[in-house]
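Worked example

This section walks through a single chain of length 215. The input is the sequence exactly as stored; nothing has been trimmed or padded.
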Amino acid sequence: MKIFLVEDDILLNEAITSTFSSLGYEVTSFDDGKKAFENIDKAYDLFMIDINLPNVNGIELVKQIKKVYSEANVFIMSADIDIQTILKAYDIGCIDYIKKPFDVREIIAKIKHTLKIPLGNIKFKNCSQSFYNRDKKVIVYEKKEIRLTAKELLLIDILLKNANHIVSNDQIEDYVWGESFKNGHVRQLVAKIRRKIPCHIIENHNSNGYTINTL
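Given that input, the structure is written out below as tokens.
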């Protein structure tokens, strides 16, 4: 899932970004309304917009988002509890108005129940029939759950944490077996996972390491 976040409170921006990144999702964040306005793209599953932003306020920003992508899912976040502001936010197309202060877990719950987007699912770019369910810690291939061993899960975890980037053999060995273990077993572990899953979700980059590419 791709999230477009605009929040000028740096600490809150970082907290939201960190939380969703840890769940395996791609977050593009801005702390300025004008910068966000210049980078509006409809290729996002969720737009999270603060109202009181520098240069271009959140209400105007949401109007522009809706012009570019009328079906955009928009959450507005604000400390403004004036009913007229809230009504205006819904009038311009937001699907939820989140009052500050809030717990980030509230947003996660709203995404699950309002948008019906399963936060536990990560789609693989190279295998349309398969995805990873983070909640259950299983790979699903053609609707069948494929169970992984503890070390296989650790390998998948570090690759997903660095999705679309090469993870070196040393990094994988440190993460899966510990810093004191250097035995070159990464290739064998990858081979075991590939035997379980018909399509190769893990790419080999010669001696440089491995990647998992996600959507």
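What to look for: The helical segments are 10-22, 33-37, 58-68, 83-91, 104-115, 150-161, 169-176, 186-196.
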